[in-house]
Amino acid sequence: MLRLKDICKRYKDGNSSFLVLDGASLDLENGGSISIQGPSGCGKSTLLHLIGALDKPDSGTIAFTPANNATLDIHNFTEHQADDFRRKNLGVVFQRFNLIDCISVQENIRLPGRLNDNLDEHYIASLCGTLGISRLLNKFPTQLSGGEQQRVAIARALAHKPDLVLADEPTGNLDEENSNIVSKLLFDTCQKLNTTLIVVTHSEAVAKQAQRQLVVRHKKLADIHA
Amino acid sequence: MPRTQPKLFEVARMLVLSYRQTWFSLAMVWLSLLTACAGLSAVLLINQSAKQSYSADSANAILSARHQILPIQDSNPISLENYRLIKQQGLSEAIAISTARVTLFADSKPLGQRIDLIGVDVLALLNQVKVSDSQADSSANMQKAPTSANPLQIGQRMGFNQDLILAHPRLLEELSITEDTVLSLDANMQNRLPRIRSAQLSGLGNELLLDIGVLLSLLPSNDITRILIPSPLNDAQLANIREWLPNHLTITPIEDVQDSAQLTQSFHLNLFAMALLMFAVCLFIVMNACNLLIFKRFAMLKTLRQLGVSRRMIIITHAAELLLFAAVISALGVLVGTQVAFWVAPTIRSILEGLYRVQVGFIDTQWLFLYLKIFMTSVAGLTLALLLPMQQLKQSLATTKSAIADVKIDAPIVSALLFFSLLAICLFAFSNHLGALLLGAAAVVLAGSCLLILLFPHLLSVCYRVVSSQYTFLRLGLAQSRALSQKTKIACCAFFIAVTSNLGMNLMVDSFRASTESWLDQRLVADHYLYSDNPAINQQLMPLAKQYSVEVHPRFEKEYEYAGRAVQLFSYPSAERFAQAMVFQDTSANAWQSFEGGKSVFVNQQFTIRNALSLGDEVDIQVPITAKTESFTVAGIIYDYGNPMGQILMPPTLFEQNPASASIFALLGEQANIAAFSDALKTLDIKLDEQLFESAQILSGSMEVFDRTFVITDGLNLVTLLVAALSLACTLVTLIDQSRPQTMLLRALGISAWQGRGLLLLQYMLLCFVALLCATPFGILLSYILIEQINYHAFNWSYPLVIEASKIMQLYGISFMVVFMVISAPIVLSTRKSLAQELTCLD
Question: Given A98, A102, A111, which is nearest B482 (Cβ)?
Fold first, then answer.
């Protein structure tokens, strides 16, 4: 379970500072999915960075309890613990720059498994089959289309069987058709694997595929229909 | 024109405005160019200084003389009566010289170093001034070398007289004294020297110039060391002088000394090669920096092109910018280079003085000429440096590529590889000229660079495939290195050149050292060597040695000329121990039998190469004992490292075996007998510590001198390596921004900051490793060329190439350490931002 309580985050810009999140809270069961929407600069990506231990909140707590494991206090992580958490428990999909250009698709997908010493070839083969990228494995990222690259990124994010996947505008660079295909694959695969998914998006169509639709409003998280 | 000018101004203004963003790349261009200019200036100045000094030494330190009168033996020096006689016989312009090395005191404290006093007959010098004055009108149109000293300069311009000492201002600075300082020969300040006057005299180094009368009164035990004859003498005049010259004196043309100057040529050649190397490496660095500068400016240039600015305009503004840089930085480079040359001057001086007994002066040079030389070289370098990026700029603007480094340049590189390879082959096959051979060596290194550029990505791909997938980091590093290799190729070329040259020079020096040591070790066959040129003492040596059962082998010698060149004609015993000690390059069957029988001779490599001789050829030599010319077969060619002269060895029986005329005696015998004999030698007034040496002492002394000679080369090698590593660091800093999204992606996958830094370091170290691998065969090839081509034609000797794996490993270690040290700082500093801040680059 992922639990965020009263998260505050302020950024400094020279002598001035501005508050991005002020008391944001969230409860999300394992295997569930949520989408987060909101205007640019409202703090969506900041929230994702905080959950992914890429940044620390100024106040508030972030706790994550993977299935059959002890609770992790993400807000209190040391740098070393944060690295461990991202490597073992987390999968990420960004809008662009998702893949390492100099290695093949196959190497990209295998990389998290190798970093964790838990490479499962059978699982990866099945994952690639699910995502329809088996024929692309020997290609290099620059040889793929945007949609193909994002599908590979999803495979890479799920390759080490993480407990939590964070996707920051995963379809932002894609046309509508590809956007639908990629987002559907992302949600369906995470559901099939019982992986918790948080997607930050501007796309209403993508957001609707999540079990819960949230929005960052007045520096807090709220249900989109509230 | 009216349309062009505002555009040109606008483009130039944009370039200046871009300095804020591109300051680092710009600083790198300046730093690279400054390093190149300073290095080149320093080496040119050191070379020029050493050459000036050597010519000054040939003319007895300061005065430009054509002949000199010397005592045949030190024990019978030139007397005042001899000097008077020489003057009376018509050589009125003869100038007596007396020299002494002393410790001087200022304020009762000794000066930091021993100083050479050069006593000159001031009256004769002033007389010479009058002669020069009278000749001045007739020779008004003759150009004189502006930096060479002559009596006119010393006597007239410097106002030299008996009450003055002339010293170079740099020496005064070095000794921390002024013209007002009173100098004395003793701490009590009793034996005071005349007043000091600062004089900008080339060739005047660690010396003080004073009147000979003053010197002899201060140092009564000193003699006239030589007499210089400034005017040229023809053969008839020389023959006439030899007739009336006292028997214990000899007159020799100063040109004769030039033979020994060949040794210093090795030093000049060494420095010149290093200067070229330094400049070549810097050229690549400047090229790399220019490339990166344009890379940084690419977005701006692309916008300018979209706004209708022509490529020609961009090239003109860049050329003007670089011309301006060259003008300013060349001046700075000359200043820095001069300072560097001044700093290293004491080391160079001690090496040259220790090795060749030459007086090394301070640098007097024409600054404008030097500046122009450096400026022109910089402009040439920058033009070359600009060619490649501008070509890339053209292609990049023509296409929609955003990264200029992606441009394929394989065809020009292959052409360049073929051109340099063919050039090297032709030069080595058809030329004997030293300059052409050096160019050939440079072509080999440049061909290697081209090959490196071509092979770099492929070699890294092979490594990537070979490394097992379980080594995730190494594979990732290799994959990223392969991607980087196109962008870092110029910097890697600079590193490749530095390592290749380093390896080539090191292997050559090591081979030379090993050969010299083994040759000396074998040739120093006797237990002890006695040096004595006193005929009276020498006569008593043999009977005395007999008393103590010590075997003495005098080395007989004869002044001899072969094909118009002076050669050494020495005796060599054929006793078994001596025969076994001889190291031959090539020898015929029954060589020793034929040698002992007086039918054949042994000659050194230098002699055979100069006279195009080989084993079995006949040479006509005047037999010392009969003075008749006879034919001898060359039965053996011997190694004779470090000797600039040709040498012929004959059996002692062909010499008039008079120990009085010998100067070196090999001693063989039991240790106890030699010890007793040594004690007995004291009674003959022989100074044991100065004249009697054990073989091991001579060997270690020689090798010490050898090692000292190459200290500067080692230093320059290391500097070149550092400069090349700096180029890599420069590239790294520029490319770090570009690779940031990929690095951040890895961080998001859970790779720690230190692992990220390690990965970055690994990528560059892998690039260096591959460059090192490529440089190894080229370094070995270069050392082979240096030994078999350059040494062979420059000094007429060669030696076996010794390839020691430990030496190569040592160089690998040093290179890795240097690169690690230089690039770790930008890598550590590169990831100081927080991860969240860095991640903004992914948005």
Answer: A102
